[in-house]
TrEMBL record:
It is a multi-pass membrane protein. This is ABC transporter permease. One of its GO terms (cellular component) is plasma membrane. It comes from Bradyrhizobium lablabi. Belongs to the binding-protein-dependent transport system permease family.
């Protein structure tokens, strides 16, 4: 080609890694459907006071255990005659808070511990990772119940107990990814340029290890939702009369033979949110694997 033709040729900008990941996620129909469902649930929980719903705390023994489709009560009523639609939407607030906040806190703490352990290595790595291994001796469910039982019932204590459960898991993933990145050329170049350990971890390494850790943490939200509901079901989480999906399952278990469809609604919400977060995490993992 002549010089004139080369100058006239349009310059195409190469698509970046994250732009490619975002494009692949948008093309994944399953991930987009799950994201849409989660957005609707989050929006309804956030905008609950402005949706014109009934009072989730006001009940009446006259209208208790109404069936789904009853006029003015599209999802029926619970064992105390309270509107199930209102309690499910308002209950989403507490359920999502207790299910997501522990993962966020564990993500911050576990990523920091794993990054330091993976980069520094040596005795510090041994001290951090062996401490983490102690928590793996206990199943997640039993560990959460034991910590919640020791701290006492309550929303804050449930969040603390679940955070302690998830920190070791995220720390192990963070340390593994950091160890694989520690000896790469760009890290060696940063060391040669005189950058300190904190600068290397914060500027050069964090962006390269954050993606896999974030995907793993997203998958933990589904586990956290189930564990949070289990703690409330056992009386170690939210206290009555607060609407929360796990606590609603506990209070409605006696009505399962009278009105099983209404009694199953909180479990359906827990299942829907958990499976959506799980499928969305799988979609993100596939989208980030550019080589495949």
């Amino acid at each position: 080609m002549s010089d004139t033709a080369l100058q006239a040729a349009p310059i195409t900008k190469a698509r970046g890694y994250w732009a490619t990941v975002g494009r692949r996620i948008v093309r994944d129909k399953v991930s987009m459907v799950c994201a849409l469902v989660l957005v609707l649930i989050f929006a309804s929980a956030l905008l609950a006071p402005w949706l014109g719903l009934a009072d989730p705390y006001q009940g009446s023994m006259i209208r208790r255990l109404r069936h789904i489709g009853t006029p003015n009560y599209p999802l029926g009523t619970d064992e105390l005659g309270r509107d199930m639609l209102a309690r499910l939407i308002y209950g989403g607030r507490l359920s999502l808070i207790i299910g997501i906040l522990p993962v966020i806190f564990a993500f911050v703490i576990g990523t920091s511990l794993g990054l330091v352990a993976g980069y520094v290595g040596g005795r510090l790595n041994t001290a951090i990772m062996r401490t983490v291994d102690v928590f793996y001796a206990f199943p997640s469910v039993l560990l959460a119940i034991a910590i919640s039982g020791a701290l006492g019932a309550g929303i804050v204590n449930s969040i603390v107990s679940l955070t302690i459960v998830f920190v070791p898991q995220i720390t192990r993933v963070s340390e593994s990814v950091t160890t694989g990145v520690r000896n790469m050329d760009f890290v060696e170049a940063a060391r040669a340029s005189g950058a300190g350990p904190f600068t290397i971890m914060r500027v050069h390494m964090l962006g390269n290890v954050l993606g896999p850790i974030f995907v793993y943490a997203t998958g933990l939200i589904s586990v956290s939702m189930i564990l949070a509901a289990g703690l409330s079901f056992l009386g170690l989480g939210t206290k009555p009369p607060e609407p929360e999906w796990g606590l609603m399952l506990n209070t409605l278990r006696t009505a399962i033979y009278v009105n099983p469809w209404v009694a199953a609604l909180p479990g359906v919400m827990i299942f829907a949110v958990s499976i959506c977060f799980n499928l969305l995490s799988d979609g993100m993992r596939s989208a980030m694997d550019i080589r495949n």
